Amino acid sequence: MSINLKLLHTFARVAQLRSFKRAAEELGRTSSAISMQISELEGQIGLKLLERTTRNVTPTPDGATLLEHVQDSMKSLETGIAEARDAAERRKGRVVFGCAPTVAANTLASVLTQFRASFPDVSLHIREMTSTTLLPAVRNREIDFGITPFVQAKSDLTFKRLLREPLVALVSVHHFPGLPDALSLEHLAKLPLLVMQGMPVIALHDQRETSMLLTEFLESCRQSLNIACSVRQAATLVDLAASGLGIGIVPKLAVPAKMAQEVRMLPLTEPQIVRDIGIATLKGEVLSEPSVALARIFKEQLNHTGASEDPTPDK
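Structure (tokenized):
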């Protein structure tokens, strides 16, 4: 049964004030309009709710029972509205977001410095997390949004691309001398590879895009590749590559600003391997002004790092 809240509110005021006239004056309506609403409510629920006399209006036993529940429901509703408004006000002065470690490494400090300059009074709460934990946190409203590599379409989440960045190869020239200035799959097939676990990537070849995990892509290639080691953290992979234990395949954002002179960074070709970095939010969620500003600063800073600009419009 669907009952109009206005009818219940009108009934409650008439029953509480014991008068159609006084309820009409309070609600800004005519007495006849109030009477029609009470009749409509009684017709909808099939019960007589008020006893009318020339001098007084009193609830019937059924009306008294309903009045008690309506009063409790109205108080609960008012409390819920107040709490929702308070939460909205708190969000305006508070931003909670998650960030993938490979994105945070070389961008987070600059992003937060710029944000603080514009929003000095906003409280920031940052959680560094991988997509595996970041997406459930967005879904459960533990964070307002997440800066993360591309995630496959989810019915309850929205992903807006901020940047498309290439994956690159880190090479110790002492251990792997004489390599060309760019590496193809044919070159990689002859080398021990160091890769990151669980990294979603996109292979660009003949104007086609193939999305899958990096390890899945390498294993699916026709070339027989030698994956010498797979790790979870980009910093670990960079150290292993610098030590000459293999060719490190990493996102460009994860490459340290300063590396040992003997380590070269080489582009990958045939196919080019990239990943999309973007903002993941709950579908239909409206971000606060500070959150929108923070996402904008992230996009500007991501492009400023030297990763390739996104050649296509945001998804």
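The longest strand covers residues 157-172. The chain has three domains: 5-91, 95-158+280-304, 162-275.
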